[in-house]
Amino acid sequence: MTNPVDKFAMPRLASGALFVVGDKILLVRKTYGNCWDITGGYVDRGESPASACEREVREELGLNRTARRLLAHDWAPSDAEGDKLLYIFDCGELGRDEHAIRLDGTEIDRTEWVTVDDLAHYVIPRLERRLTNTYRAYTSGTILYLEHDEPRA
Question: Is residue 123 part of a domain?
Answer without folding.
Answer: yes
